[in-house]
Design a protein that fits this description.
2 domains, six-stranded mixed beta sheet, single chain, alpha/beta, Ribosomal Protein L4, Chain: A
Length: about 210
């Protein structure tokens, strides 16, 4: 399977073979849904937390004696029926949202999305990507010449390039990630996937089972 390679001016300069083990998978939306749901759940943090009567401060003695006053009996002002008391059945931060998905399923879902990007021409492979200086204007000129234009795009670099990261960090429609950190949630969040051809080898080494 060969895919066209573009230069930084948006012109076709050749073709790059794509490994069929990664870029030739049939889409299974149910599997992708499971993987993305688990990723979102694993990122979720339980913030809402209410105190029960054992955690609320005060209430160490009875507010009044048990009998003789004509009032209802109470043992503590921190009872849930008192204002300022504990909360019954309120949200607790101990709740765990984590979902486990087998590695094989995650890897297969990633390959499916990469295959889908390639089939729908939402994958852009560059022969090289480099800047002489970290200027946002320079990298915007490059992106404007690519088919993605100003669409939301994920830039997968083979390794950390400080000049590119500094130049692109203020562009709202671009996010940078290392190719070895690609995941399903990132891929579905962006329309285009842009990467230098060196990133293909990084993806093979990272995700293909040896």
């Amino acid at each position: 399977m060969k895919y066209e390679v573009l230069d930084q001016k948006g012109g076709k300069v050749g073709e790059e073979p794509l490994p069929k083990e990664i870029f030739n998978k049939k889409l299974n939306t149910d599997l992708i849904y499971q993987v993305i749901t688990s990723q979102m759940a694993n990122k979720r943090r339980s913030i809402a937390h209410t105190k029960d009567r054992g955690e609320v401060r005060g209430g160490g003695r009875k507010p009044w004696r048990q009998k003789g006053l004509g009032r209802a009996r109470h043992g503590s002002i921190r009872s849930p029926i008192w204002i300022g008391g504990g909360v019954t059945f309120g949200p607790r931060k101990e709740k765990i949202f984590e979902k486990k998905i087998p590695k094989k399923m995650k890897r297969l879902a990633l390959f499916m999305l990469l295959s889908d990007k390639a089939k729908r021409k939402f994958l852009i492979i560059l022969d090289q990507l480099g800047l002489e200086e970290a200027k946002t204007k320079k990298i915007v000129e490059i992106f404007n010449k690519l088919p993605s234009k100003k669409e939301k795009s994920l830039l997968a670099l083979p390794e950390i390039d400080k000049k590119i990261i500094l130049a692109a960090r203020n562009i709202p429609y671009i996010e940078i990630i290392q190719a070895r950190d690609l995941n399903c949630l990132k891929l579905v969040s962006f329309k285009y996937l842009i990467m230098p051809k060196e990133s293909i080898e990084v993806i093979k080494k990272t995700f293909l089972k040896k």
